[in-house]
C-alpha cells in the first residue's frame, strides 16, 4: 500500500479522528457544487430513479443496473472525486483507498429517524484492522428544522454487528455527541464502524433533509460490495475519468480487485 502525503489536515485532527471516530467540516463543499447537487437530488428522487435504484439493489439474482446510477450524475461524480475530499480521506486512511458506494436522498420534513447502527462493511464482523470511512454531505446543513446526527465517540473500536444497538432506537445515550448546528455544504466524516443515529426532525415547520453519503475503504483487504451491480458503478466511474483529477491518476480509486464477489 502506498502511503499518502499529509497536505492539509494537521496531525492533531488526524489523531482526533482516530480516537473519536468522526470529524466535522462546516461549509466544506463549494456553494456552486452544493447548488448543483441539490438539483440532482431533486431529480433523483422526483423522477423515480432513486426508487428504481433501491429496487435493483434488493434483487441480487439479477445484477442488471438501473437506468442511471448516482455516480453518473455530473455533480455527484464530481463530489465523489472532489480533490479536497480525496486528499482528506487519504490523510485519514494513511494509505491508498478505494471508492465503495454512494447514496443520495432527500428526506421530507418530519421523516422518522434511524436507530443506532454502524456501517462498517464486514461479513462477519471480526476486526477493525482496515479503515472504512463514510462522508456524510449535508447539502442544506443541520439544524433543529431537519433533526440532528448523534454519534458515540470511540465506539468504532468495538467489534459488533451493525444493528447491535438497534433495540435502543434513537434514544439519547451517555457520552453521545449531537451534531445539529452545521451550515449548508457541511460534511461529517465518520469511521464507518462508529455507532450513530439519525434523530427525527419536526413535522410542522421543518424542511427537507438533503444528504449525499459516499464511502471509501482502505486498500489491503477485500471489501464486500453493497449493490449487486457494483462492477457497473466502478466501470462507469473509470469511463468518466473520475480517477484522474488535478492531483494525478488514482488507479486504486475504482479498482474491482479490492472487492469480494456479490454476495460475499
SSE order and pairing:
Layout: H1 11-20, E1 22-25, H2 31-46, H3 49-57, H4 74-80, H5 83-93, E2 97-107, E3 114-117, E4 132-138, E5 149-151, E6 177-179, E7 186-191, E8 196-198, E9 209-218, H6 230-239, E10 244-245, E11 248-249
Helix pairs in contact: 2-4
Describe this entry's structure for a reader.
The chain has 264 residues and is α+β, with helices and mostly antiparallel strands. The protein has a single domain (11-258), classed as Jelly Rolls (Sandwich), CATH 2.60.120.620. Helices cover 24% and strands 21% of the residues. It has 6 helices and 11 strands. A 5-stranded antiparallel sheet has the order 1-7-4-9-2. α2 (31-46) packs across α4. The protein is globular, with a radius of gyration of 18 Å. The model is unreliable at 3-7 (pLDDT under 50).
Summarize this structure briefly:
With 264 residues, the protein is of the alpha+beta class. The protein is 24% helix and 21% strand.
Instruction: Give me the count of strands.
Output: 11
The name of the CATH topology is: Jelly Rolls
Q: Please tell me the total number of domains.
A: 1
Which sequence of strands runs across the widest sheet?
1-7-4-9-2
Roughly how much helix do the residues carry, as a percent range?
Answer: 10-25%
Query: What is the string of SSEs from the N terminus onward?
Result: HEHHHHEEEEEEEEHEE
Calculate the mean pLDDT score and round it.
92
Pairing-aware structural class of the strands and helices? alpha+beta
CATH architecture: Sandwich
What is the CA-CA span between the terminal residues?
A: 23 Å
What kind of sheet is the major sheet? 5 strands, antiparallel
The assembly state of the depicted protein chains is single chain
Shape: globular
* Rg over C-alpha atoms, rounded to the nearest angstrom: 18 Å
CATH superfamily: q2cbj1_9rhob like domain
For the record, the CATH class is Mainly Beta
Low-confidence spans: pLDDT under 50, at least 5 residues? Answer: 3-7
Contiguous helical run count:
6
Residue share in β-strands: 15-25%
